[in-house]
């Protein structure tokens, strides 16, 4: 899933000189004031411009954001299987609504049994609630942001509820799947819904089994979607009063301010001790910062879990007696797509040596230290390396192309280019033989490309211009320009055969977070089933990368032995460079009140668990 920029980034424009002060302050340094706190509530600060505005768990791309899903919906509507535990990316059996799935028939069937927890109205959560979700997502799959043709929900041929056990359901699958792929990427997308209340086509209609037909399921979705778009009625709409999670909505306004109270029927292992949990909206980042400053002088804070605007990182020194600064990284990678389908620049990008030269010119350490002030992590390949997981092996933890302009120059020179440092390198030996530029590259063709990026964050402009400066060391010219996020996103798509296509590189300032597909298998990013047709490129492969070995390795991660297949895939793609890897900025610089226990470690999937929060 790609997270839109306002739902992800903090903006950094401050000077590098503040890093020393931040490092000292965040280590706990000198004074730590822990007061006797008797509060019974806690407050979470929503990021500027990122407010919850959609409550129905089957959210379209428009509403699929961290603010809506991970930090709002999940508090009330628990997914079938929860992921993320103790700051790691892994299946969390304790928080899941079902026991671990059982695979059979050589991986072509999966059975899971719910734990018998209840909805907040006392009605048991059963397999029928899972089937209700399944019917709705199948009939409305075009709106589901994680949908890839042929995968979930297409790959579930049928579902059968056990006649002996209403808590058990079996999926018949379209092919044999590996358990990690199907559990982490397919079952992870399911959220049981209260069929006994929501299976209706209008507010005045009766509850039935409308979801049993595609037409009925579309009508039910249309109704629930319309209700979810009416934020002002959340408080009074009986649809949203019944939940499965630890929290119930008490009040919410259209500005995004939220109050929740404990759900006494919650069946999970950790129940809230707070009487009220609040989320506060801020239109200006400085307003939230002022709340933090005010809280540092009193024990009864107004913001207990907040964030520090990155450009104000030096302010942590004045907050460190009350708050811990905790950079919040996400289960994410970041990259600049290359247009492999561009008829002019595409033949150049299809040469591995040229992609290697570009990657050698990306100084990730320098960008992290200067542009991001240390609050970012490198991207070395398709698997994130910032947070502990089962997926990144030792090889993936190392940069296969560390910054080395000399290596970039040598690669170009060895493959038929005259390198003009500070200018534009030229292909002087066209052809496909040894020492020649490669197929489709013409005599005298320049290494000159457009790079369009999304405006709005000064740090992004700094990063893109730094890349242009570094690329010039090997005579690779990046003509940098900026436009709106929507324009960049709309422009960056594979070129249809025979049509004019002008974009070369594009960056929309929003990282790729593996969610709700937590297993980083690459099917949405780099898979292809052919070439020459934009319809054949899956998911977010906007550059049209298509490599037979990568395709084979991706397929193996879905069906083969888990560790071996994932390691083979990630290490091949890291070196084959389907895009230019660049650093991924931290989601936030979290400030957590030192007396608030249970909020840390921060979850790399961007979820919060206020039911575990307690005042010391």
Please give a quick description of this structure.
By secondary structure, this protein is of the alpha+beta class.
Give a written overview of the molecule.
It is a single chain. Helix 10 packs antiparallel against helix 12. Mean pLDDT is 89; it is low at 5-36 and 530-539. The two termini are 37 Å apart. The protein folds into three domains: 5-51 and 256-330 and 590-615, 3-Layer(aba) Sandwich (D-Maltodextrin-Binding Protein, domain 2), CATH 3.40.190; 92-240, Dipeptide-binding Protein, Domain 1 (Dipeptide-binding Protein, domain 1, Alpha-Beta Complex); 332-585, Dipeptide-binding Protein, Domain 3 (Dipeptide-binding Protein, domain 3). The relative contact order is 0.17. It has 616 residues and is of the alpha+beta class. The strands form ten sheets. It has a four-stranded mixed sheet, with no helix packed on it. Strand 8 (247-252) and strand 9 form a beta hairpin.
Which features characterize this protein?
D-Maltodextrin-Binding Protein, domain 2; Dipeptide-binding Protein, domain 1
CATH class descriptor of the largest domain: Alpha Beta
Low-confidence parts: 5-36, 530-539
For this structure, the CATH topology of the largest domain is: Dipeptide-binding Protein, domain 3
Largest sheet composition = 4 strands, mixed
Report the portion of residues in β strands.
15-25%
Q: What's the tally of helices?
A: 16
Roughly how many Å apart are the termini? 37 Å
Overall geometric form: globular
Name the structural class: alpha+beta
Helix content: 10-25%
**Record field, number of beta strands:** 26
Under CATH, the homologous superfamily of the largest domain reads Dipeptide-binding Protein, Domain 3
Report the CATH architecture of the largest domain.
Roll
Tally of domains: 3
Strand order of the largest sheet: 1-10-9-8
């Amino acid at each position: 899933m790609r997270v839109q920029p306002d739902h992800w980034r903090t903006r950094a424009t401050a000077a590098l000189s503040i890093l020393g002060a931040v490092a000292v302050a965040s280590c706990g340094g000198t004074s730590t004031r822990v007061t006797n706190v008797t509060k019974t509530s806690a407050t979470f600060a929503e990021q500027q411009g990122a407010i919850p505005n959609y409550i129905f768990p089957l959210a379209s791309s428009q509403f699929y954001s961290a603010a809506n899903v991970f930090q709002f919906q999940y508090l009330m509507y628990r997914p079938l299987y929860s992921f993320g535990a103790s700051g790691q990316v892994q299946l969390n059996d304790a928080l899941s609504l079902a026991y671990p799935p059982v695979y059979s028939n050589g991986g072509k069937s999966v059975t899971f049994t719910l734990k018998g927890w209840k909805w907040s109205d006392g009605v048991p959560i059963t397999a029928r609630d899972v089937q209700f979700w399944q019917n709705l997502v199948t009939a409305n799959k075009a709106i589901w942001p994680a949908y890839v043709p042929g995968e979930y929900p297409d790959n579930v041929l049928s579902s059968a509820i056990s006649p002996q056990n209403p808590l058990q359901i079996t999926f018949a699958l379209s092919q044999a799947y590996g358990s990690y792929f199907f559990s982490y990427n397919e079952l992870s997308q399911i959220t049981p819904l209260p069929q006994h209340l929501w299976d209706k086509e209008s507010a005045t209609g009766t509850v039935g089994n409308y979801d049993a037909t595609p037409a009925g399921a579309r009508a039910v979705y249309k109704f629930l979607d319309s209700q979810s778009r009416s934020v002002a009625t959340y408080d009074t709409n009986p649809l949203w009063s019944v939940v499965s999670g630890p929290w119930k909505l008490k009040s919410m306004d259209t500005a995004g301010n939220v109050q929740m109270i404990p759900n006494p029927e919650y069946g999970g292992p950790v129940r809230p001790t707070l009487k009220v949990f609040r989320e506060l909206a801020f239109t200006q980042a400085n307003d939230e910062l002022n709340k933090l400053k005010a809280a540092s002088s009193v024990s009864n804070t107004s913001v207990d879990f907040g964030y520090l605007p990155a450009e104000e990182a030096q302010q942590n020194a004045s907050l460190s007696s009350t708050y811990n600064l905790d950079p919040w990284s996400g289960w994410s990678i970041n990259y600049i797509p290359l247009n492999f389908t561009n008829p002019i620049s595409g033949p150049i990008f299809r040469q591995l040596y040229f992609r290697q030269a570009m990657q050698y010119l990306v100084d990730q350490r320098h960008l992290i230290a200067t542009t991001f002030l240390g609050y970012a992590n490198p991207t070395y390949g398709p698997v994130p390396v910032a947070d502990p997981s089962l997926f990144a092996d030792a090889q993936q933890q190392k940069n296969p192309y560390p910054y080395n302009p000399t290596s970039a120059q040598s690669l170009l020179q060895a493959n038929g280019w005259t390198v003009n440092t500070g200018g534009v390198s030229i292909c002087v030996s066209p052809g496909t033989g040894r020492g020649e530029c490669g197929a489709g590259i013409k005599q005298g063709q320049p290494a000159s490309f457009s790079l369009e990026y999304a405006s709005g964050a000064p740090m992004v402009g700094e990063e893109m211009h730094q890349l242009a400066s570094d690329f010039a060391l090997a005579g690779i010219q990046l003509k940098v320009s900026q436009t709106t996020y929507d324009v960049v996103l709309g422009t960056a798509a594979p070129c249809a055969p025979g049509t004019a296509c002008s974009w070369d590189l594009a960056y929309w300032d929003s990282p790729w977070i593996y969610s709700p597909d937590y297993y980083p298998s690459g099917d949405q990013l780099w898979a292809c089933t052919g070439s020459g047709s934009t319809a054949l490129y899956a998911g977010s492969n906007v550059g049209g990368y298509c490599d037979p070995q990568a395709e084979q390795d991706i397929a193996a991660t879905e069906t083969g032995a888990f560790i071996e297949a994932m390691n083979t895939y990630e290490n091949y793609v890291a070196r084959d460079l389907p895009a230019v890897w660049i650093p991924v900025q931290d989601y936030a610089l979290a400030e957590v009140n030192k007396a608030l226990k249970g909020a840390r470690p921060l979850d790399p999937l961007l979820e919060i668990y206020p039911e575990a929060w307690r005042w010391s």
